Amino acid sequence: MAKQSMRQRLEHPEQRRSDYLQLLLNTRREDGQRRCLTDDEIIAQCLLFYFAGYDTTSNALAWTARLLAFHPHQQERLQAEIDGKLTSKEDRITFDMVNSMPYLDNVLSESLRLYPNPQLSRCCTKSYHLPGTDIILPQNCMVYVSPYGVQRDPGLYPNPDAFDPDRFLPEVKANRHACAWLPFGQGPRNCIGMRFAPLQAKLALVAILRRYSFVPGARSGGAVPEIDAAPGLLKEKGGTWLKVVRRG
Ligand code: HEM
User: Fold this and answer.
1) In terms of C-beta distances under 8 Å and separation of at least 24 residues, what long-range contacts does 230-237 make, across chains too?
2) Into how many domains does the chain fold?
């Protein structure tokens, strides 16, 4: 698909658009650039966008739905917030509306705290002395950070395995270090979708929860899920299975 779109854009410059593919294509056109992207690199970036952008958000939604199914009080509180904004069946969900639901934001943040991407990785470009320690990271050394470990640390989150969206109330959050919550990574190479993804996930949750509720079903397992040991995103073993019931 990427190859076909690239060819089409190059053969028909009038079809030029201001989108992601065009930005990638522009790197090979401008003169005097230090580094241009090859065709393979452009294709790799397009592919990365699919992996980075779709499975991550749908996985976050699956975990959130599961948490809500096993925590009906929190689900009802969230539905009350949604009902307060969408008062009639015809009301449309808007950008501003989704962004004015603090409990929704806290639910998603708490879900991403409990079930984040398992690993962040960096490679040392030069030797680095870790301040306050006698540890020297040599050049080319890989460093792995576990958001799961950080985010389940009882020193940062008391009773860390409990689902409690109120941990993200502004006054509670203000007492935590900025790196205590790492689902989108940190620093200059953090996730570029970290504002878009929550918006998309919230939109889906509002659209579903205004009409339906999640409940555990026969295949849902217990409140504490079994984690799939396969590498990659943190997923539930055998997939997440829930029932969806229409609200009265
Ligand atoms: C809930 C959904 C998502 C989660 C949990 C997530 C998580 C992450 C994490 C942990 C990283 C690595 C950050 C680091 O090493 O510091 C990352 C990188 C990245 N994400 Fe996301 N992501 C999500 C959605 C998205 C979406 C929707 C897009 C695209 C529209 C996206 C595009 C990217 C890209 C391109 C990178 C690589 C950035 C770089 O290397 O400079 N992600 N994401």
Assistant:
1) 233/55, 233/56, 233/59, 233/117, 233/118, 234/59, 234/115, 234/116, 234/117, 234/118, 234/148, 235/59, 235/62, 236/62, 236/63, 236/66
2) 1
